[in-house]
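Consider the tokenized backbone below.
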């Protein structure tokens, strides 16, 4: 099976608003950077490990 997404972009508008309000926010998965499932899981692990 091949799945193709064209025109997909990262977006985290709520995180951007929270940062503007002074909160420390980590964005994970495709909201932070378009990637495969491995990249999404790794970004979640990294954010958790840094807590």
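A designed sequence for it:
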């Amino acid at each position: 099976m091949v799945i193709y997404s064209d025109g997909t972009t990262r977006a985290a508008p709520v995180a951007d608003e929270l940062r503007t309000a002074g909160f420390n926010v980590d964005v994970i998965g495709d909201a932070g950077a378009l990637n495969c499932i491995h990249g999404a899981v790794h970004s979640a692990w990294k954010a958790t490990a840094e807590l």
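The mean pLDDT is 79.
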